[in-house]
Amino acid sequence: MRVSFVTVLYAAAVLVFLACSFDPAGLSEAATDADVDAMDKDGDLFDVVDAVTDVTDVTDVTDVTDVTDAVDADGGDGGTGCTAADNECLDYYTLNVCTGTGEMIPMNCPYGCDPSVPTCFQLTPSNGVDASLIMQPGLAGWTLATDAQLMTDTGEILINGNQYRVPGTGLEPQSGIYYDVVPMSDGSEAGLFVMDSLTILSGVTLSVSGGLPLILLTDTTRIAGVIDVSGTSLSCSNANRTCPGPGGFRGGDANGDGSGPGAGGDGVDDYFSDETGGGGAGFGTAGGQGGGSDGGSAGSLYGSDLCEPLIGGSGGGGGGHGTLTSTSTSQGKGGGGGGAVQISALSYLEVGSMDPTLCGVLANGQGGGANDSSYESGGGGGGSGGAIILEAPRIHIYMGAVIAANGGGGAAGRESSSHGSPGLPSSTPAPGGSCSGCNTGGDGGSAERTVPKNGDNNESGDGTG
């Protein structure tokens, strides 16, 4: 989606963008340290001992008055005898809290006070990430002033082809960046990078590849450039549009289903009739059916609203390809799914700047592949968009910033047809492939198109993705 306003969100905000949809999640609160000793509300156990000792001295009736100390909640030390139940938010940033001495004192809440508990807000990162990792000695900040590539499977980071961070787990001393492969709730894994701060300057892109979804844990993050986890040729060796983003799933080859829980089905291979298009993949919304009477099945919905576990988009189905005169499977490939990224900033997260250059976070799916030879084939289905989690106590999103997890368009069918467009960095649907005399591919899903668009077969020929 394209954010068309400037907004500042406080109080442990969590924004989840799931294949072109998002849901604000619940907030996490920090437990206060104001619990009162149930035995003695002023924390002074000696008052009780004194009272019992004095009562045994029955010859001195004046000492009996010391028994009142046993029921005096503060032992005469000036406290109010409060409990944790007396805690209250005095204003948005101030918590009045009961201390161990039975006194109420004001406490500053940098990210806001939650009156329903009451307590100070703080961020508990999603997907079980250990926030204390930010406290380890030697952790450094990273300011990215030129394009870079980050690999989620190994921890390697390249800048201009040179290693900025070498592969391997743990804290790497040269960069000051910590990396590990961490488990999530369903047993799947993610690549976790921890740094004190992350700043991406305007006009700079951090491209992410690998099989694992990406989690970034920082104290502060400022993104004036782009973090891109979209379906890309960087993520697989054959360098084609079936490649997914990190944590996403591959598109299908010709006559093959896509992969992933929302995969599109394959088109039909029929040399003596029309080959049909591959189905579009689903995620936050269902995919579209491939063109033709028996086009590939549409991908289904999956995943959770909170993106736990963190998972990427699925692959589109491959188009049907007649193999009687050609065994090539380079035709009509399905698009790879968009990747998945979680950005957890424990203090502050900022996306955008006053610069009009494209900036934001992208997790778009790839467009379906077309038939680019003389053999008639159905077009491949588009890959679904991935998932984006942005979470911090304070989030500032500038006007014009783009946060997009859009699906790719389906490819056109018949000879010399055109590929579907990858998901776009906007709310506009990715257009399906089209050409003169071709069947037009269905558009990808986006904020402006949440109802799947099927491929067509209007040219009485091969179907589309």
Describe the structure.
This protein is mainly beta and 465 residues long. It has 2 helices and 24 strands. Strands 1, 2, 3, 9, 13, 14, 15, 16, 18, 20, 22 and 23 form a 12-stranded mixed β-sheet that branches. The chain has a 7-stranded mixed β-sheet with strand order 12-11-10-17-19-21-24, with no helix packed on it. It is elongated and about 90 Å long. Residues 1-12 and 20-78 have low confidence and may be disordered.
Could you state the order of secondary-structure elements as H and E?
EEEHHEEEEEEEEEEEEEEEEEEEEE
Per the principal axes of the C-alpha atoms, what is the gross shape? elongated
Stretches with pLDDT under 50, minimum 5 residues: 1-12, 20-78
Tell me about the biggest sheet?
12 strands, mixed
Q: In total, how many beta strands? A: 24
What distinguishing features does this structure have?
elongated, 465 residues, twelve-stranded mixed sheet, mainly beta
